Amino acid sequence: MNKPEIDFIEGPAPETLVITDLIEGDGATAVAGGQVEVHYVGVDFETGEQFDASWDRGSTITFPLNGLIAGWQEGIPGMKVGGRRQLVIPPALAYGEAGSGHRLGGRTLVFVIDLVDVG
Asked: Per DSSP, what are the bridge partners of residue 21?
């Protein structure tokens, strides 16, 4: 797969996690608290500006789900290897409300995640 383009989403930011499967995988299933290997792109919901992408670093990233933001912990389990999923994550499930001290605090985030492997 190639780096995904994330289309600008019209309308107000959602207040709850929105999960959309763009490509259904057919491999092993990611489980809550498990380890995942992913490629991803993250953009700001309001501006559409990219703030991070593993694709730009040229390699996937592997980590345990329980170490990630709540939106990933809730949005990745059930995904299958080979799949591509879009998560729209409100601030409460990302980096907290504005003033949290994180540069993305108060922002609704959009991630497109490719599940490469599970461990």
From this structure: 85
Q: How many domains does the chain have?
A: 1
4 in any annotated domain: no
Cβ-Cβ contacts under 8 Å for 18 (sequence gap 6 or more): 86, 87, 88
- In this prediction, residue 99 carries a pLDDT of 87
At 18, is the secondary structure helix, strand, or coil? Answer: strand
CATH number of 95's domain: 3.10.50.40
Over residues 23-42, the pLDDT tens digits come to: 999 999 999 999 999 999 99
83 DSSP 8-state letter = -
Does residue 15 register a pLDDT over 90? Answer: yes
Q: Dihedral through CA 89, CA 93, CA 98, CA 103, nearest 10?
A: -70
Which domain range does residue 77 map to? 18-118
- Side-chain half-sphere CA neighbours of 3 within 13 A: 12
Residue 2 lies in a domain: no
Q: Which helix (H) or strand (E) holds 22?
A: strand 18-23
Residue in this structure with the two tokens 């780096």, named with its chain if needed: 3
